[in-house]
Amino acid sequence: MCDPWEWEKNHFFILVDKVAVSTTMEGWSKWFEKAYGTNETMVAFTKTDIIEVSTVFLGINHNFRFDGSPPVLFETMVFHKLAAPKNVLGHEVEWDGEECMRCSTWEEAELQHKMMVAEVISKEYLGTPEQLKEMVETILKEQK
After folding, report:
1. Residue 109 is part of which domain span?
2. Is residue 13 domain-resident?
């Protein structure tokens, strides 16, 4: 059985200069309220006319194994433009999230974002590998 105080200590994190630092639930909620939706929590965002790729800091450890492995704190999600909006719980939705990857550090999240952009664009594009690489690099450069 996991000690509840130990669980909290390893469950909530804030970022200090892009490095995750353990905190309490109260510390995380106060920090996150100020940081949410800012460059402090947004690692990268890439958008084309058919996809959106978003990589963010979650601040809550999504590694539920309690085996001493690193906390999983960052998430990259891909959203695809729907051919027609659909109704979800009374709201019209134009994008649908499908792929998701998670990791532990800001540096891993930056790489994970680039990998996900390349992967989803390659599924939509039928050019040569060199053309695909150039296309992905151009998209990522334009998003900065």
Report:
1. 42-143
2. no
Report whether 98 contacts 52 (CB < 8 A): no
Read off the pTM.
0.77
CB under 8 A, 24+ apart: contacts of 116-121 = 116/53, 116/55, 116/76, 116/78, 117/46, 117/53, 120/51, 120/53, 120/78, 120/80, 121/48, 121/51
Quick: pLDDT tens for 8-64. Answer: 567 899 999 999 999 988 999 999 999 887 888 999 999 888 888 999 999 999 887
Two tokens at 30?
Answer: 């106060």
pLDDT digits (tens, 9 = 90+) for 105-126: 999 999 999 999 888 877 766 6
DSSP per-residue string spanning 62-119: -----SSPPP--EEEEEEEEEEEEEEETTEEEEEEEEEEEEESSHHHHHHHHHHHHHH
CA dihedral 89, 92, 97, 98 (to 10 degrees): 80
| Position 102 in a domain | yes
Rounded-to-integer distance, Cα 139 and Cα 121, Å: 10
Task: Find tokens 């996991």 and name the residue.
Answer: 2
